[in-house]
Design a protein that fits this description.
Largest sheet: 7 strands, mixed
Radius of gyration: 50 Å
Distance between the termini: 102 Å
Strand order of the largest sheet: 1-2-7-6-3-5-4
Strand content: 5-15%
CATH class of one domain: Alpha Beta
Number of helices: 8
Structural class: alpha/beta
CATH topology of one domain: Leucine Aminopeptidase, subunit E, domain 1
Length: 353
């Protein structure tokens, strides 16, 4: 049933009839002459074993030849790479070549060391030049490690985020919609439609006001947006503010101050406004929140301040009434300020202010 048998198997099949003929002849010789003489029987048996031996040897050699032929047919397969054996160390020429190679490696190593020393010298010269330039310009590389404030007392001025920038004044916050008014003889009122977390003027004397709750631990609306933008350090600073009552760090109508942390503005003033439907006199409490914020700003030499619509939204204060209270209070208490900003995110608040 094999249409194309391997070469070894074919050769074995061709030799098989001859081997069988020898075995058959040996068998009959044994049957005839074995009773006559034991020597003849012995020789006949030996012939059988010799025939079997030659049969096995021929079959093995022919099979091995067939396997070699099959291996040669598959010569397209790649053989694994075997690196050449190293030269004998007893040969004089090999020793000389090995010595020359070691000398070349030593020379190459010395050249690399010389190049590395030259590069180090150049880097040290550059570092020295850079240090001299920094000393001339007056760059201070020390970071401030002052403790966070625990109350609304004056804070030392924060480092400006624009101190290492070019001498030109930084680009201050500008919204798509803005309006300017003269609040007093020395102070401007500027309204913006935008995000208060992005507001800043100079990064040194500017502050945004957070519409906070009494715990000062963050919340929703403007409070949550400011905590998210300022980072985790803001929550740590708020927790360091002492409680005036259990669970109350800033009563309604009061204000506290912290750093701006990751905000562009230098300070955050946390003011707590009234919940419109729970306060008996919400107008008075809202006015106190704006007034307290302006007092804290003045104590910390803040010249630019930005308010949101305090108590509007979740606290339910009507926009029209809140706008009237805020503008009246700011106009009467904006002493020592250069600019008062209102950054209003929602359209009803923008329209009301």
């Amino acid at each position: 049933n094999i249409s194309q048998p391997p070469d070894g198997l074919a050769c074995s099949m061709m030799a098989l009839p001859y081997i069988e003929a020898i075995s058959t002849a040996t068998y009959y010789i044994t049957r005839v002459f074995a009773p006559l003489n034991r020597h003849i029987f012995f020789l006949s048996s030996l012939a059988v074993f010799v025939s079997a031996y030659f049969y096995i040897s021929i079959h093995s050699k022919l099979s091995a030849g067939g396997e070699m032929a099959d291996t040669q047919v598959d010569s397209h397969q790649e053989l694994p790479f075997q690196p050449p054996s190293p030269p004998s160390s007893s040969s004089p020429s090999a020793r000389e070549k090995m010595g020359n190679t070691q000398e070349e490696k030593t020379d190459t190593t010395q050249e690399e060391e010389n190049i590395g020393n030259t590069q180090k010298e150049k880097e040290e010269e550059k570092m020295g030049t850079t240090q001299e330039e920094k000393e001339k310009v007056g760059i201070n590389q020390e970071d401030s490690t002052e403790d966070l404030p625990r109350h609304s007392s004056p804070l030392p001025p924060p480092p400006s985020p624009f101190a290492s920038a070019s001498p030109a004044a930084p680009q201050r916050y500008e919204a798509q919609e803005s309006a300017r008014f003269k609040l007093t003889e020395t102070c401007l009122l500027i309204l913006h439609r935008g995000d208060i977390t992005e507001w800043f003027v100079d990064g040194q004397s500017d502050a945004i006001v957070n519409a906070a709750n009494r715990r000062l631990l963050g919340g929703g609306g403007v409070d949550g947006a400011i905590h998210s933008a300022a980072g985790r350090d803001l929550l740590t600073a708020c927790k360091n503010i002492p409680e005036v009552h259990p669970g109350v760090r800033c009563p309604v109508g009061s204000a506290r101050i912290t750093r701006g942390f990751q905000l562009s503005a230098s300070y955050i003033i946390h003011a707590v406004g009234p919940i419109y439907h729970l306060e008996e006199y919400p107008e008075s409490k809202l006015s106190d929140a704006y007034r307290s914020s302006l007092e804290v700003a003045r104590e910390n030499d803040v010249k630019y301040i930005a308010f949101p619509a305090i108590s509007c939204g979740v606290y339910g204060y009507p926009y029209e009434e809140a706008a009237e209270v805020s503008l009246t209070t700011v106009r009467d208490n904006a002493t020592n300020l250069k600019e008062v900003h209102f950054v209003l995110f929602e359209e009803p608040a923008w329209d009301a202010w």
